[in-house]
Amino acid sequence: MLGNFTYCNPTKLYFGEGAIKNLGGELAKYGKNVVLVYGGGSIKKNGIYDAVTAVLKERGKDVAEIAGVMPNPTLAKLYEGMEIARAHGADLILAVGGGSVCDYAKALAVSVHCEEDPWQKYYVRFEEPSCKIVPVACVLTMVGTGSEMNAGSVITNRETKQKIGHVFASEEVMPRFSVLDPTYTFTLPHYQMVAGIYDIFNHICEQYFSGEDDNTSDYIAEGLMRSVIRSGIDANKDPRDYEARSNLMWTATWALNTLIACGKATDWMVHMLGQAVGGVTDATHGMTLAAVSLAYYRHILPYGLKKFVRFAVNVWGVDPAGRTDEETAREGLAAMERWMKELGLVMNISELGVKESMLEELADVTLVMNGGYKALGREEIVEIFRESL
User: For a FRET experiment, which of 84, 248, 360, 362 has its CA 20 to 30 Å from that of 349?
Assistant: First the structure.
């Protein structure tokens, strides 16, 4: 492994069926005023809302609610939540939902006591919090982002059509605890389930496709990817397969809690391309990643050929005998494409509402990262979007 690093993750996880029973004991550690954050209301239909609010009532908490957090949380929604949390004197922000709700809760946590505009401070200048941070906790209902055990938060500015993520440096932004019950994901629509599966897989890829050293993080990443591939197929066949859904939930957490980034440069360019599409179209995050991935990886393959060969052999089981390195690498991507199609993922950005006339606009809002095998120029970005149509 190359380079030095410090690793610390303070989030406490309660995992498994019935894990909600641990919520009350954790709530007792925080003040009376809780802000409950959730999405479009599905938790009220499947009983999760009632289960959580019953514990809050039992613990004597004074609860203010922020409902309607959208799949791509907006800056306007953040401003709305700041007013509610400030008026309530929030002691804890409890996010009940998927990654977007958890992301929103963390953005809210660093903004409630912020005296500056949070968009400018955190998502334009990428500064760290200089104010008090409200503690966050999560009850997870959808897997994919890993937001339940990291300090990342993605916010969309609809006025500027920018979707930007900030991984905060402070451990205080990380959820204090998260409740992970795989059965809470059983009622998720198929489209959202497979989008989450690919989000998990691509998080691993973003960290894997960088560097050529013999890195322990890459060996862990390969095991996680194989787990996602197998469990993704099983969950696609039977969404109520507990073993498959629990494996996906656990893998999602470890895919993005910074463990497999240790000693790595990491890429994240697929996310920048996908987030540009999401910022312009408001499409589902995992599907935007799926729609741009193959065009990007085929573009950078010659610059990271050794790792793409390893990916083909160790992750997809491609036999390199009788093949050149490039043939082996491309067969790995072909195997990946077959798996993606089997899941039913969106494979091009046209299906998400992108037209060729929008490609220049997409390039305008695409951030360029330099941790992978090639830093893209603007024309390359436009061409990758064109190949993704």
Answer: 248
Cα 306 to Cα 224, 327, 331: the distances in Å are 20, 12, 14
Task: Supply the pLDDT for residue 41.
Answer: 85
Cα–Cα distance between 250 and 257 in angstroms, integer?
11
Superfamily of domain 191-388: Dehydroquinate synthase-like - alpha domain (1.20.1090.10)
Strands 12-15 and 177-180: parallel
Task: Quick: pLDDT tens for 32-45.
Answer: 999 999 998 899 99
Domain boundaries, the chain: 12-184, 191-388
Quick one: which of 52, 32, 48, 29 has its CA closest to 40? 48
Please tell me the number of Cα atoms within 13 Å of 326 on its side-chain side.
Answer: 6
Q: Which CATH architecture has domain 12-184?
A: 3-Layer(aba) Sandwich (3.40)
This prediction has a pTM of 0.94
